[in-house]
């Protein structure tokens, strides 16, 4: 059924094909490729995962979450799930580049209104997930993508491999507070409580969003790019810097609403429902030039579309052919998820995701 050779195209059953030379992203537990629905010709995205010896599958749990969120604005459509003896494949909606890539494309500079408008969309997506009793647990710029074509101003949320229900399906009870949890997420954007081993809840997704907003405004975060001998040391340094940078310093030079936003979400109790409307209001207050945030024209759209017109379809978001070919020989060969990522900041996630059984 699955021809896994170094061809340009891999058949996935009768219905889909996957383009090996069109890799969209390196994941910590799976890679994402561009593909096609054979009968309709519609382009699709395919996330691949190597089957583990114990048959545990992060992709399966990602699909369960995605199924549960279907229909929400900014939630990628799930089309199919294909299992083979060696690999699992999730077939889902093809989206555009992620916010981190777009940010680099714009030389780490977005206009104030772009940041606020993206922030609003990200906040709405997080609220939507929470309304379905799910926390994401890996909120970061790489996990937000824009749509394609007419949907290129809509922000989508992806990567539900670490997401978790925070309410019991039957009783509706909130999960209970625990300490001593293994780290889950990406160190750069993780909340302080997550570093300290607390069970995550809604507040942690929002603290990560606050870090994203500050990062997009400033171009960096004080704990980004710290040098360390190994991952444990780096992790410890990031935590120490996060704890020792007070809100005022972190948000220095930014409108006061950013530090109010951060303080508000850091003050939330474990089970407390965040005040999403208040957080939305804070973002709207920063916007002083009268253009409603839902009408902001994103500066990156022109740059991105020019690249498509120049016949470099999706580049630089598609990885080099050579690398893709090498990878397909051993798609995610590293069982512990130690395969390095395209982005340095997510390396912690790579190594920790595999160790932590997560769900
Ligand atoms: N549906 C999609 N369409 C286009 N690109 C995607 C899609 N899903 C993921 N990607 C790209 O692949 C990257 C890795 O995917 P992700 O689901 O985040 O995997 P991981 O859990 O391994 O981080 C994303 O950051 C994004 O750039
Ligand atoms: Mg990801």
Please indicate the count of domains: 2
Task: Tell me what the CATH architecture of the largest domain is.
Answer: Orthogonal Bundle
CATH topology call of the largest domain: Transferase(Phosphotransferase), domain 1
Ranges with pLDDT <50 over ≥5 residues? 319-359
Query: What is the tally of helical segments?
Result: 12
Q: Which class best fits the helix and strand makeup?
A: alpha+beta
Q: Roughly what percent helix?
A: 25-40%
Terminus-to-terminus distance = 31 Å
Q: What's the rounded overall pLDDT mean?
A: 85
Shape by Cα distribution: globular
Strand content: 5-15%
What characterizes the major β-sheet? 6 strands, antiparallel
Per DSSP E runs of 2 or more residues, the count of β-strands stands at 10
Would you mind describing this structure in some detail?
With 359 residues, the chain is of the alpha+beta class. The chain has 2 domains: 1-94, 2-Layer Sandwich (Phosphorylase Kinase, domain 1); 99-301, Transferase(Phosphotransferase) domain 1 (Transferase(Phosphotransferase), domain 1, Orthogonal Bundle). The chain contains 12 helices and 10 strands. The longest helix has 20 residues, at 112-131. The two termini are 31 Å apart. The protein binds adenosine-5'-diphosphate and magnesium ion. Magnesium ion is lined by residues 27, 142-143, 159.
């Amino acid at each position: 059924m699955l021809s896994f050779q170094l061809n340009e195209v891999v058949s996935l059953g009768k219905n889909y094909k996957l383009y090996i030379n069109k890799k969209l992203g390196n994941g910590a537990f799976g890679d994402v490729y561009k593909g096609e629905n054979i009968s309709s010709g519609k382009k699709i995205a395919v996330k691949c995962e190597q089957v583990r010896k114990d048959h545990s599958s992060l992709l399966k749990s990602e699909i369960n979450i995605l199924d549960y969120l279907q229909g929400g604005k900014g939630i990628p459509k799930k089309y199919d799930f294909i299992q083979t003896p060696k690999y699992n494949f999730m077939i889902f909606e093809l989206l555009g580049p992620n916010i981190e890539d777009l940010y680099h494309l714009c030389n780490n500079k977005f206009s104030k209104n772009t940041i606020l408008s993206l922030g609003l969309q990200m906040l709405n997506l997080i609220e939507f997930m929470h309304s379905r009793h799910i926390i994401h647990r890996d909120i970061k710029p790489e996990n937000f993508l824009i749509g394609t074509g007419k949907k290129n101003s809509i922000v989508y949320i992806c990567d539900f491999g670490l997401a978790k229900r925070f309410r019991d399906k039957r009783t509706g009870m909130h999960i209970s507070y625990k300490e001593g949890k293994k780290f889950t997420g990406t160190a750069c954007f993780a909340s302080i409580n997550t570093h300290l081993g607390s069970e995550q809840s809604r507040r942690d997704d929002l603290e990560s969003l606050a870090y994203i907003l500050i990062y997009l405004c400033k171009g960096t975060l004080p704990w980004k790019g710290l040098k360390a001998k190994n991952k444990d040391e780096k992790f410890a340094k990031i935590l120490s810097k996060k704890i020792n940078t007070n809100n005022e310093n972190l948000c220095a030079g930014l409108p006061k609403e950013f530090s109010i936003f951060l303080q508000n979400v850091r003050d939330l109790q474990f089970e407390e429902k965040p005040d999403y409307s208040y957080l939305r209001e804070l973002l709207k207050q920063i916007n002083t030039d009268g253009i409603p945030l839902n009408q902001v024209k994103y500066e990156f759209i022109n740059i991105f579309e020019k690249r498509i017109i120049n016949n470099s379809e999706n580049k630089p978001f598609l990885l080099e052919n050579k690398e893709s070919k090498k990878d397909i020989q051993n798609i995610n060969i590293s069982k512990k998820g130690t395969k390095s990522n395209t982005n340095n900041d997510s390396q912690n996630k790579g190594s920790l995701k595999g160790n932590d059984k997560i769900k």
